[in-house]
Amino acid sequence: MSVVTNTTTIGAIEAPSRRNTELLLLAFAVVIPIFAYANVGLAIHGELPPGMFLYGLGFAVLAGIGHLVVRRYAKYADPLLLPIATLLNGLGVVLIWRLDQSERLQNLAKRSFGTFSESAPRQMMYTGLALALFAVVLLVLKDHRVLQRFTYISMAGALILLILPVVPGLGADVFGAKIWISVGGFSIQPGEFAKIVIAIFFAGYLMVKRDALALASRRFMGLYLPRGRDLGPILMIWAVSLLVLVFENDLGTSLLFFGMFVIMLYVATERTSWIVIGLLMSVGGAVVVGTFASHVKVRVTAWLDPFACYSTSGACEQVGQSIMSFGSGGVLGTGWGQGNSDLIGFAANSDFIFSTVGEELGLTGVMAFLLLYGLIIERGVRTALAARDPFGKLFAVGLSGAFALQIFVVAGGVMGLIPLTGMTMPFLASGGSSVLANWVLIAILIRISDTARRPAPAPAPSPDSEMTQVVRPS
After folding, report:
1. Is 9 within the bounds of a domain?
2. What are the protein's UniProt keywords (predicted)?
């Protein structure tokens, strides 16, 4: 005797979206800057800042809107990217407000410009605009693979963005570097957006050409050397980065531009020779330009021995003050609002804002911030590994590599590890271009991670498999 039972097929189990985890982390990302804001007010004025609750409410609303957009339009995105970026942005506004309270900077601005205006409210406005742009990117960009169609258009767009600052009447020379354009009274740094646009070109180009670039013609000293004709792309990018360095006196953008290409080239071809060739070319170009370009030469001199020219060079004084800020911070720091990093001057809330972190939060705070940046980079690389298409893999690696390079050159410059580059710390430093561009970068990584983590659709059920007979012996 046997028993016959009917069983039906079970559909695929839906993967967890992790949106509730993101919401919980986002709550901490909003509360921590509010407490930091309160600490600064108590340290400087002996009372809670009058706008603390309004600031907290506004920041919470912006973060909540960002979360709702992700929950609705990128349900399976990485749950850490938005909270970490929110935390860094919130602490950046607090650091800028802390420097706004400095009487030294207020008096310096009045002597130089006749008036003083706080940067923190303006930075908060830029944060609102950046989160609006973040939402627009997620709404419009339904699939990151669409960007592959604009490979060569993005190359032209990136070159235009890099050329704009040297156009007469449009570009602005700020402290020797021509990296700004002035439009209608507003200053924009096109290089911040160029890094995203050029990453589209690199990803699209290397996806098509990676097999040819991976070919090696000969082996020399343990390295596989590429064929001569395959050196063309890297030579072109190298030349463009040198031109940016020469005409704009912008060491940071040229390092970022060329370094991102070398990273993506290595990921696409898995050839160590490209890394070695890229490093040799970057060092050679930097040496040549550093020898002849006066602006770069001043920064190299300040890097080698800032205290030898401390009283004669503004760059040396800034680097010297920055090193002393890190030194006086010790392990735990002097405390929020109790440092003297404002002695650096106007650059205290932009290029050198990380010096305030080193002095007031100490080595512990520096490592905490670097850990947060490292988590963004790690999640970006993890997204690249999980991406199902080669364009998405290269694009995510390029954006993560560019972000990592920018952290390295900024932190290394203010700590005296490498010469100053003039770039700003992402999310921390004052500046609308930086915060807008980096929120767009986060939005794109969220879109790629959503596509990578989204479960594949369940296959259509077969009529023959809807009912299965299972015979069990009695």
Report:
1. no
2. Cell shape, Membrane, Transmembrane, Transmembrane helix
Token readout for 170 is 């449009």
Residues 131-137, mean pLDDT to the nearest whole number: 96
Residue 474 lies in a domain: no
Residue 23 confidence (pLDDT) above 90 = yes
Query: 424 is in which domain, residue-wise?
Result: 17-456
Does 7 reside within a domain? no
The answer to whether 251 and 421 have CB atoms below 8 angstroms apart is yes
247: Cβ–Cβ under 8 A, 6 or more apart, which residues?
166, 178
Tens digits of residue pLDDT in 202-218: 898 888 877 777 665 56
Banded pLDDT at 156 (limits 50, 70, 90): confident
What mean pLDDT, rounded, does the chain reach? 83
CB contact at 8 A, 448 and 73? no
Q: Which range (173-182, 194-203, 247-256) has the least confidence? A: 173-182
**Does 289 map to a domain?**
yes
Q: Work out how many domains the chain is built from and give that number.
A: 1
Per the DSSP assignment, residues forming a β-bridge with 180 are 172
